[in-house]
Amino acid sequence: MSDQASRLRSMAQGQHPEAPLFAARVLAITSGKGGVGKTNVVAGLAQALAQQGQRVVVMDADFGLANLDILLGLAPKYTLEHVLRGEKVLEEILLESAYGVRIIPASSGIQELTRLDTVSELRLVQGLQRVAETADWLLIDTAAGIHDSVLKLLMAAQEVVLVTTPEPTSLVDAYAMVKVLHLRDAAKPLWLLVNNGQSLEEAQETVEQLQAATERFLGKQIRVLGMIPADPHVLQAVRQQKGVVDLFPRSPAAQTFQALAGHLLGQVSLQPGGFAAFWRQLASDDAP
Predict the structure, then answer these.
(1) Cα four-point dihedral sign 79, 23, 135, 239
(2) What's the topology of domain 3-282?
């Protein structure tokens, strides 16, 4: 095991004075392909959880197309890049959105979390430990696809939400993601969320098609989180750079996010040292 991994594991296990353990839920939201509304889902779940009294931190881990801040109308002066270079500490780059949701803004084009040098990695993990001490949820907005850096984040998270749409190409890519995750860890908790469904019947058909494929070829049953209905309020909120839960709280999409947040609160267990376990896995030598 490398000295870098040893040091990070020690910190994650609470053996470092700046790395206390705490209780948190770490949830990664991902998709097999882009264009399925994943970042809208992240924003909706984050605001809906915060509405219900939860302290939420969202990390934008899509370093290729970092856009969570744009979606929420935030203008970061500093990003993770400044933290990794040692110019700022994590607390100085945090952005606050509606309902007190805190955003860790990414910067397009910087190195992935799994490819940082030792010094940058230590800066990041220490900052995340401090910030997450006051969080009930750490939501990770990953890039789309099955790249190694994305898979490592998914394997490290406590649970994964896979976002798809009813389109055939989205379903094919969603199955590919399920297959890759299953081969790496068959026990990894995985939720399926159908976004932009035109009807409950269409969403159910989407779920059944994906479940049939995973049961036949993988012997795996996917848990279903639900469906976000096609709702013109979502596009209106995007255009106004606000979360739909914030701008149109009574809209069908916002009410669905609120229901899904309540469901997650009841179904995702609270694990002591949640973030510590997340980073310990992320910093391990074993590739996904």
Answers:
(1) positive
(2) Rossmann fold (3.40.50)
